[in-house]
Write a structure and sequence with these properties.
The complex is a heterodimer of chains A (196) and B (244).
Chain A lengths: L1 H23 L11 H134 L5 H20 L2
Chain B lengths: L18 E2 L2 E2 L4 H22 L7 H21 L7 H17 L12 H23 L17 H13 L1 H34 L1 H37 L4
Antiparallel strand pairs in B: 1-2
Helix pairs in contact in B: 1-2, 1-3, 2-3, 2-7, 3-7, 4-6, 4-7, 6-7
Classes of the chains: A mainly alpha (196), B mainly alpha (244).
């Protein structure tokens, strides 16, 4: 209801105001030629001045500014690109140096290890030789001792037995007879004790 | 101002009457707003081009964005040959845009809502483009009226239509801008009148309409300046790059 009233009001108002305008207006002011010449004159004057000032003074400056900025940005981009390439090549160099030094370090380690191993081997061999020699020497001595031992034992046996006999009997007994007995005995039992 | 929505378009003399011979060239409110628009353009773009810093400030950015906008518009529609006419099209676009925009301020005068102003601009463009066309192509420019690939039988008709459409260019160009400006401002005035006559009770609806219309009119003000400039570019393109 209120809505209807409202629209009626608007509609009526439209009618009403239209009538008022029609009564007042004398057509479009645009079609009144009174100031046409004035408008044309001022349009040509203002637009002409605007065009001349813009084209001769302002637009070339803006264009120069834009060009300058463009070239500056381009230069900066190029410089940045160059620096990037530089840093990349430096990085590559650095990596190369690192890998080379790693390789070198490995080589040095390998060499020293081999050297040390060689030295150890040489020392070991010489030591082994020494030991062998010592062993041989000792064996020789032992063999000699083995060879000489029965004779010495026989000697000692003869001497002790003659001494014992002298104490027991009180008379000197011929050494040769005793030695014959000892020899005989040692030959009988020598195998048992000396293995020869 | 009176309630008649057309009174806003009335031209009246400011200051004394100036006459050259029998011609009245008095300074009027229309002249005032032409001067204001031109001065505003010159001041803004002068400030925008004064310093060249690597990081532009707001006004410099505005000037440079407008420059690249118009320059792109020209190169897109008329190609690289239209470079010498850049300054003219730039001035034209800015002049129409500023006149339209100043007209959006209440109690101002809209220069472009007058058919005589838009017609003089359009006629100048029309004559200029035609002269350029004849200078560049000689009588070969008349080939513009003979599109290729049309059957011989239809040719006389097509040529007549083409000539009429060519001759009506200044009229359509000028009437488009003038009518848009006039209609928009009249409509805003009418709705503004409704707000007063309906009062506090019913005035809200036309008021909201008026607000919405203001936004629309600002868009139209820009759009019509753009259309005016781009049509100039297209006409220039016809004259510079004759193809058929």
């Amino acid at each position: 209801m209120i809505k209807k009233y409202f629209f009626q009001l608007v509609f009526l108002n439209l009618f009403f105001s239209k009538e008022v305008y029609a009564a007042e207006s004398g057509g479009m002011p645009q079609l009144n030629p009174e100031f046409w010449i004035s408008q044309i004159f001022w349009l040509i004057l203002t637009f002409g001045i605007l065009y001349i000032v813009l084209s001769k003074l302002i637009l070339p400056k803006i264009s120069a500014n834009l060009e300058l900025r463009k070239s500056q940005i381009q230069e900066n981009i190029e410089a940045a690109e160059k620096q990037r390439e530089d840093s990349e090549s430096k990085l590559k160099e650095y990596e190369k140096i690192i890998s080379e030094s790693k390789f070198e370090a490995k080589n040095i380690f390998k060499e020293t290890r081999e050297k040390a191993l060689k030295e150890i081997n040489v020392k070991r061999e010489s030591l082994e030789q020494q030991i062998d020699e010592e062993i041989k020497k000792a064996e020789k001595e032992i063999n000699e001792l083995k060879k000489t031992a029965p004779k010495k034992i026989n000697q000692i046996a003869i001497e002790t037995s003659s001494e014992i006999l002298k104490n027991l009997i009180g008379t000197e007994i011929n050494n040769s007879s005793i030695s014959a007995i000892v020899d005989d005995l040692s030959k009988k039992n020598g195998d048992k004790y000396y293995g020869n | 101002m009176a309630s008649n929505p057309m009174t806003q378009f009335e031209v009246y003399r400011i200051g004394p009457e100036i006459k050259i011979g029998s011609f009245d060239i008095s300074f009027t409110n229309a002249s005032l707003f032409m001067v204001i628009s031109s001065l505003a353009i010159l001041i803004i773009f002068n400030l925008g081009s004064k310093k060249n810093s690597m990081l532009p400030n707001k006004i410099q950015l505005l000037a440079e964005l407008s420059y690249t906008f118009v320059s792109k518009m020209i190169s897109d529609t008329a190609g690289s040959k239209a470079k010498p006419y850049f300054a003219f099209i730039f001035s034209l676009f800015m002049f129409v845009l500023f006149c339209n925009m100043f007209g959006m301020i209440p109690y101002t005068f809209t220069v472009t809502s007058h058919i005589i102003v838009t017609f003089i601009l359009a006629a100048f463009i029309f004559i200029g483009v035609t002269v350029i066309g004849f200078i560049k192509h000689g009588f070969g420019y008349l080939k513009l009226f003979v599109p290729s690939g049309v059957p011989i039988v239809l040719l006389p008709l097509i040529v007549v239509i083409e000539i009429i459409s060519y001759l009506s260019r200044p009229i359509s160009l000028s009437v488009r801008l003038f009518a848009n400006m006039m209609a928009g401002h009249t409509m805003m005035k009418v709705f503004g009148g409704f707000v007063i006559s309906l009062g506090i009770v019913g005035g809200w609806l036309p008021l909201s309409f008026s607000v919405a219309l203001t936004g629309l009119e600002i868009l139209v003000a820009f759009l019509q300046a753009y259309v005016f400039a781009i049509l100039t570019c297209i006409y220039l393109n016809d004259a510079l790059n004759l193809h058929h």
